[in-house]
Each structure stands twice: as C-alpha cells, then as structure tokens.
Fold this protein.
Amino acid sequence: MNSAHPKGFTRRTFPTLWIFCLVIGAAAPLLSFPSRIPAQESPSRPAYLGFDLNTYPGDDALPVLRKTFSFGGYWLNAPPGAKQNTWVGKRQLMLSQKLGFLILYNGPLSNQLKSPAQAVRRGTADAAKAAAAAIRERFSPRAIIFLDIEEGGRLTASYHAYLRAWVDELARDGYRAGVYCSGMPVSEGNGVTIVTSDDIRKNIGKRELAYFVFNDTCPPAPGCVISQSPPPPSASGISYAAVWQFAQSPRRKERTARCAATYAADGNCYASGDTAHAWFLDLDSATTPNPSGGRDAEP
C-alpha cells in the first residue's frame, strides 16, 4: 500500500496515490478471537510474513503466494485510486490456501470531513458499510477491519471524530476496528515531530484499536527481504503495532537507499515464486498468521 511524505500522501502498490496512514494492525488466532487486542508481542513470540496489494493478483497466484506468505490483504471496498474492488468473492479461495487475512477498508480524505458532526455521521455510515461488506464476504464476527487513511501527519479534529465513530459503530455491528497509518516521525517545524499512530492513540480514548503501521525507511526496515523469520512489528519503532508494513512497491529511493539491492531492478518487490514479476507487492509482518481473524465463519 504505501509511502509517506510530510503532510502529504502515501504511494500505494498499484495506483499512484500518496498516503501516510491507513487503518490497520491487530491480532487474532487462526480459529478463535481474544477478548482484547494484543498490543505488543513478547520477545520470544515469532512474527509472520504477509503481503498486500490493491488489485487481486488472480486465482492462480494464490498457491504461489502461499508458499511464501502466511496472510494477505483483502479489500472490502474499492482501494484508493480504483473504481472497483477486484477482491470481492475471493475469501473462500484464500481460505482454501490456508491464507490468513488483513481486512482493509478505504477511508475518506480529511477534506471530505467538513465538521466534527458531519465526520461522526460519515464514520458511522462507513463503519456500517464495512460491516455489511464483511458479512457479505462471510467474515466472522469479531474480525478486525483496518481503515486505510490516505494522509498522515497530525490528523484534524474532524478526522479524529470520524475515527471514534468508526470504532464505535463497528463494535455495535460485531466487528473490531484497526487503522493503517504512518509509524514514522514527521517534522512540524520548530523541533516538533508527530507520529500519526501516536496522534491517533492519544485521541481515540479508551477504545480498542489495532495498529498496522507503515515505515519503509532502511533501517529499521530491511527492504524487500522475504524471510520465514521476518522482523516483528515492534521493530518498526512502534511498540504497540500488531502489523508492520516494511517494504512497498515501488520503493521510495530517498528512504530505501541502504537496502536498494533487496528490490528488483524495476524498484518493485516480488514474491520468490513470481518469476514473471506479475504481482508487485508490499511486505508486512504480524504477531499472528491471521491478523484480522475472519477464518471461522461458514465458507
């Protein structure tokens, strides 16, 4: 999904949109869900490798990707820059390959939230739509839906109002909330920096929220390194992250110079078995092989 510019947008995998913060990261075991979202893995707990991309790579890609990855991103609505959602109806195919899920929902831009009151209405409506889509796709109750926030830095008061409404409505509809967002410090001038995930955490109150953070800077990111022992989410610098996106396609040259050799010559990141370089991916690590849950509903 992503790259980040101060007060700007993050570049995602297939469209050329720019973003900082997306909804995301949380933990749930393969077949059952804990009562609370774990914030940080223990030092001895393994990490699991996953992928995300905006366009469904095709049915034939799933067996190849499963040889490398434990989980994959799954959109409930059209991703940023796309007019349609190509992931609709693909849950059972991912289940058949024993892939875990990172369930994603594309959120609004701040300029679409005109006031806190309007933002609350929009957050409530969007959460209801996300829950309805999750039900249609047969994702089980208590699965975590990560909101993709397409901008970063310090969020507006209206955006924070939207997020609180999003979390509350998802809970009423039987699902849990997450955000995908920047885990990178951004300068606000005069020596002041802000990390988007910290800004959200400060303003969300006592609500439970799972964090899927983005930081592709090398280091701490290793670059496009495909390993069965990926770095844990806490290695991103965000101790409470449940999922970390540590590589994106295409790579951002200004932040990945020290790990440029790990990417393909075209600057993208590909699965080990993708010899044709058909699907360029973002790489993620998580504290569980099924970060959103959602495997135990009837297929």
In short: Residues 116-136 form the longest helix (21 residues). The chain has one domain: 48-286.
